[in-house]
Amino acid sequence: MKRLVGPICAAAVMLTAFQARAGESPFGWIYTADVHPQGTFEYEHKSFMQAGQSQGQYFFMQNKEEIEYGLTNQLQISGYFNWSYANAFRNGFDGTTGGPGVTQFLDASFDPYSRYEKTRFDSVSFEAIYQVLNPVTDPIGLALYIEPEIGPKEKELEWRVILQKNFLDDRLIAAINIMGKHEREVYADGSIERASPIDVTFGMSYLVMPNWMIGFETRIHNEFTGYWFNNPEHSAFFAGPVIHYGQKEFWWTLAWRHQLPMVITYNEDQASVVKHGRIYGDEHARDEVMFRLGVPFAVK
Fold this sequence. Notes:
Layout: H1 2-19, E1 41-51, E2 57-70, E3 75-89, E4 115-133, E5 141-150, E6 154-167, E7 172-186, E8 192-195, E9 198-209, E10 212-225, E11 231-246, E12 251-259, E13 264-265, H2 268-271, E14 274-275, E15 278-279, E16 287-297
Antiparallel strand pairs: 1-2, 1-16, 2-3, 3-4, 4-5, 5-6, 6-7, 7-8, 7-9, 9-10, 10-11, 11-12, 11-13, 12-16, 14-15
């Protein structure tokens, strides 16, 4: 028994440190089935950056400012303020300027061979996550997620099925998200685009030492036209590492996903914006980076 005291205490310390910060995320894009305890608040900032296309210069950063609240021990709600920054210059296949977050906002007065740079307000959104099964006390964690979003140029409904499994006394976390969106975007010329992508994301993150986790994330993105997955357009694949640090006062996560050279296209329009096995156009960039910062706080 004396020989077991040391290892048991060390494991207990690591497990306790991890569980005390269950509200934080060890992944960049993937959600886990953990929710905030009832009556607790957290501020979270997210920056999702896309960079690099077939040529020229391209950078697009979507930002979310969020307040999360544990309404019950199983239900977490959040409110978002969404804004973005775009900077692009002759990044299209034909040498014109465009790309995700850019083309939608170009009207007839814009010189297609000039630089586009702008910071703008995008939308507001509401999020609710309901924990069906607890990943710590149940064999597997399960949560359901829904997020309506509305802005001047876009309306969107996002949903997720979140699965989580913990291993090695909760030091290793595996998570899968099945995410769908129903999107309506208004372009500067008045045209409307309706889309319904489905993503399947998978990741694992390991507690390498107190406060630090390292892992990876993968993404399979499937794009469809129409609100209800009417016609397939393409499938793109991403993978990359993630690092996470957390303590009582704050936490942060940094993740990177690289588009793998294995895209599948289902029509000529989509095939026309593929180079070296990667798809660009108005859909994707070569690299994706996510930074998240969380600060829990109490309201008296």
